Each structure stands twice: as structure tokens, then as C-alpha cells.
Amino acid sequence: MTATPPERIFHIATADDWRRALGTGTYTTSTVGVSLEEEGFIHASRRDQVQGVFDRYYRGLGEDLVLLTIDTSRLESEVRVEPVGDDAYPHVYGPIQSRAVVEVVPLSRTGATETVTSLWIKEMARRMGLALLVMLVIAVVVLLAQRLA
Question: Rounded to 5, what percent of the chain is helix, strand, coil?
Fold first, then answer.
């Protein structure tokens, strides 16, 4: 079963792997811990397959993840849609040029895409929690110092 690849395909990448690709101009990780050279192709998916791929292979990984949206018309490498179990997935037979990636979106720990607003809120909550912890420690130190004086 070989079908025409969709115009857009998706790949979950670690943020570190994507940063390296930006430096070299090509992305060559097939899947977590496996290179294109080892696997022979880069695993990709249709948009409706992304959550299932995340749940099977990336949930609990503990690394920052991003979802790459790849414009297949910008790729120099061949894309084949091939059967995997009861479905078919796009496979990229060669490196993915960074210019073929048209969108990079952070993924949450559940696999949902993150927006700039949600990232900002999470960072502000983290900073506020840290500030409250520091204030609590200072208050305890001051109270102890008053009791000892």
C-alpha cells in the first residue's frame, strides 16, 4: 500500500535534536535514540496519528519535545507512505532539511501542543512559586532570629 504523501507530515523531536538540526541545516533522528543511518528512514505521521505516536513512544520521556510540521514539497528526500499494522505512516528516506520544516510547536507532557500563552502562564506560575518559597524561607529565618535574640 503506497499512497501519495500528504502535503504536510509531522514528526515529534526532542528540542535538543531540533536545535542541532538548526545548526547543521538537516534533521537526521529517526525516532528517540535512533538515527536515520541506523533505521534507514525518519518516522513521521499524519496529524491525526500524532497523539497515538506520542502516547506509544514519547510519553514519560522527560525531555522537552517539539512537533515539527514538514512541508513535503520542500523536502529533497523521498517520502513513502507505508503500511504499519492496520494503518499507513509516512517515512522520510533521507534527511529533513530545516527549510522544509514550516512550524515547530512545543509539546506538553501529555502530547498537547503548547501555545505562547500557555508557556507564559506556566513560566509565571513557576517563578511565582519560587518567589513564594524564598519569602517563606526568609520569614522562617526572621522568626527564628527573633526568638533567639
Answer: 45, 35, 25
The stretches of the chain forming alpha helices (DSSP H) are 15-24, 36-39, 50-53, 116-148
**C-alpha cell of residue 131:** 518567589
- Name the residue range of residue 143's domain: 116-149
pLDDT the model gives residue 124 = 73
Q: What is the pTM of this model?
A: 0.73
Q: Amino acid identity, residue 20?
A: R
Tens digits of residue pLDDT in 82-124: 999 899 999 999 999 999 999 999 988 766 665 555 556 666 7
**Domain count for the chain:** 2
What Å distances lie between residue 74 and 58, 89, 98, 131, 132, CA to CA?
27, 19, 10, 46, 49
